[in-house]
Amino acid sequence: MSKRWDQSVNDHRRAVREATLDSVAALIAQHGLSSITMSGIAEEAGIGRATLYKYFSDIDSVLVAWHAREMERSLEQLAAASKTADAADQRLEAVLEKYAMISFEHHRTELAALLHQGEHAVRASRELTDFLRDLLAEGALAGTLRDDVSPEELALFCVHSLAAAGVLTSKAAVRRLVRVTLSGLRPPG
């Protein structure tokens, strides 16, 4: 196969996959996560069920792929938030606020909890923790964030404390949670 032909086939496959995942997102927004069916996804995406089954073996594999894409997009949003300031502590604050708002907007559900157990979720969680760890280490070196606790432990503290944003009822409450979390990251004294 020529490179051009190979590229157009790959582009087509990528387009079908993205259209499928976009359809899942639209159906979830309209009807909720538990009402998703393979037939509904195929119809929403404008593809045949047979085509859908060429890409995904069952509803679980579609939902995992959609969730993995959502997590990847969230990580991209956090990376963008980190570029809004120069100082490490200010970048960390922007990232934590964005992370908390993402948690708030994607309220915890039983099915979401199941999706967070997959390998993609473990990988995304590790990326998030590493990202926060690096910001915390930079802030500790600059003297604006505490250095008496390892950056790895503080990153885990941030992730777990801000996960509570998923059950809060207002953005104001989310902002307060971020402020409380940040106060625990400041140097003692």
Tell me the strand percentage band. Answer: under 5%
Radius of gyration: 20 Å
Structural class by secondary-structure content:
mainly alpha
- Whole-number mean pLDDT: 89
Helical stretch tally? 9
- Overall geometry comes to elongated
Which regions contain 5 or more consecutive residues with pLDDT less than 50?
Answer: none
Percent of residues in helices comes to over 70%
Give the termini separation. Answer: 67 Å
Order of helices and strands: HHHHHHHHH
Largest sheet: none
Please provide the count of β strands: 0
Task: Write structural notes for this entry.
With about 190 residues, the protein is mostly helical. The chain contains nine helices and no strands. The chain has helices spanning about 5-30, 40-45, 50-55, 60-80, 90-105, 110-115, 120-140, 150-160, 170-185. α2 packs across α3 (about 50-55) and α4 packs antiparallel against α5. The longest helix has 29 residues, at about 5-30. The N and C termini lie far apart (about 65 Å). About 25% of the residues are buried. The mean pLDDT is about 90.
